[in-house]
Amino acid sequence: MSTMKLGALTLLLALLLLGTSWLVMRNNFRGGSPSPPPVETRDAKQDALFQACVAARDREIHRQTFDTIDNPDVQREVLATEKERAIRDCRALFPPL
C-alpha cells in the first residue's frame, strides 16, 4: 500500500472512531437505551380525600356567599377567591403522595 492510501485509511478509521465515541457519549449509552424519567403517580385514596375536601368546602362557600351577598359580581369574586383558598387548604391537609 502506498503511503497516501495508508494515511487516508488511518484518517478514515480515526474519524470513524471519534464519531462512534461521540454518539455513544451523546446518547449516554450504557449497554442499552437510557431509562425514561420517572412518572409521577398519585395515590388514588389521597386524591379522593382531597377532592372530597374541596367539594365539601365549595358547598359551604356557595351557601355562605349566596346567603350573605346580593351582588352577582361580588359573589363571583368571592367564590373564586374562596375556592382557591379551599384548594390550598385541602392540599395542605391531603398532600399528593
H/E series, N to C?
A: HHH
Mean pLDDT: 85
**Helix content percent band:** over 70%
Cα radius of gyration in angstroms: 32 Å
Report the β-strand fraction as a percent range: under 5%
Q: Helix/strand/pairing class, anyone? A: mainly alpha
Give the CA-CA distance, first to last residue.
69 Å
Number of domains: 2
Report the total helices.
3
Uncertain runs with pLDDT below 50, 5 residues or more? Answer: none
Which overall shape is indicated by the principal axes computed on the Cα atoms?
Answer: rod-shaped
Instruction: Report the count of strand segments.
Output: 0
Condensed summary:
This protein has 97 residues and is mostly helical. 73% of the residues lie in helices and 0% in strands. The protein folds into two domains: 1-31; 41-97.
Explain what this protein looks like in three dimensions:
The chain has helices at 3-26, 44-68, 72-93. It is an all-alpha fold and 97 residues long.
